[in-house]
Amino acid sequence: MEFEPIEIEGDIIAGPCSAESREQVVNTALALSRQGIKTYRAGLWKPRTKPGGFEGVGSIGIPWLLEAKKLTGMRVATEVATRAHVLECIVAGIDIFWIGARTTANPFAVQEIADTIAETGKDVTVMVKNPVNPDIDLWIGGIERLYNAGIHKLAAIHRGFSSYGEKIYRNPPQWSIPTELRQRLPGLPIICDPSHIGGSRDLIAPLSQQAYNLGFNKLIIECHCHPEDALSDSRQQITPEELGRLIQNLKQRSSEDAGDEIGMLRNEMDMKDAELIDILSQRMAISRQIGEYKKSHNITVFQNDRYKQLMDSRVKTGHEMGMSADFVKKLYSLIHEESVRQQLEI
Ligand code: PEP
Ligand code: MN
């Protein structure tokens, strides 16, 4: 695939998760423009996991985005999921579209969007978020559907992947997937979405720096003038002033650093370690739940049969994946020891 340059100005796309009112859209845009932002995002139709949440203002928000565009000169972007969304936005003059994670997971919907854009003959930029599940072929498939329909101004957005249970990140990143995407689709810009990966304000700056270090071209960050009052994703939005400070503190890697393969690999390793610790803490949480059960049913904490069976199966799997039996044994006896300690504390 031969991609054409995308029409996204600046390194950072920013704006609220959702357009909520004319004032909110216009005021946030003005404040972001003062921070030097040149591309503005706001969702009009919000795909909510459960019914009953704020599902977006819909088409009545289109003129608000156009007003923000007129007042600031920024390019404006919104999410589209259906033929009707595309038609309304394209006719009105919205510049850039993104396909949400839940939509990328649905090939029928992506095809419908691709065909509708092609039908209008408009040469718009489309950003394709990764699907909710970590399936690189489904992600590439979505990009191909658009490409084959003649849309060549394309970018991918890494927004992390859904996972179950308590965790540090709302949608844990699996950096090896966008790294593979970069190899499989050279020339495709890859944007990082630290807001949806982190799910909380404090994680946005460190995730943004990690993304830069890993060579992502751009960031998309959710911003709201009053994040605590936001109607969607309020925990992960920051104010335009906070975004200004974040940008000042971001260290752009020098071109020497960017070519430093060991540096890239170390970064990837740091992130794998963060995932490892995250998974270990999830494992401990399950272990404490088992501990509660054992306590209420008068079952002893340590059970030899279970321990032996667990150890054998982990050693076997570890060995199949290229690790020595001795290492896996030592590792699991430490994990098990900590697990027993946590259960005894209950
Ligand atoms: C969004 O960008 O507000 C959004 C809904 O994102 P995602 O599709 O990544 O959940
Ligand atoms: Mn959001």
What labels describe this entry?
single chain; 346 residues; alpha/beta; 2 domains; eight-stranded parallel barrel; 14 helices; binds phosphoenolpyruvate; binds manganese (II) ion
Residues in helices, as a percent range:
40-55%
- Within the largest sheet, what's the order of strands? 1-2-3-4-5-6-7-8
For the CA atoms, what is the radius of gyration? 23 Å
Tell me the number of strands. Answer: 8
State the separation between the terminal residues, measured CA to CA. Answer: 57 Å
- What are the bound molecules? phosphoenolpyruvate, manganese (II) ion
CATH class of the largest domain: Alpha Beta
What is the beta-strand fraction?
A: 5-15%
Unreliably modeled segments: none
* Largest sheet: number of strands, sense, barrel closure: 8 strands, parallel, barrel
> What is the number of independent domains?
2
Number of distinct helices: 14
* Second-tier CATH architecture of the largest domain: Alpha-Beta Barrel
Principal-axis shape equals: elongated
Task: Give me the secondary-structure category.
Answer: alpha/beta
CATH superfamily of the largest domain: Aldolase class I
**SSE succession:** EHEHEHEHHEHEHEHHEHHHHH
Mean pLDDT: 93
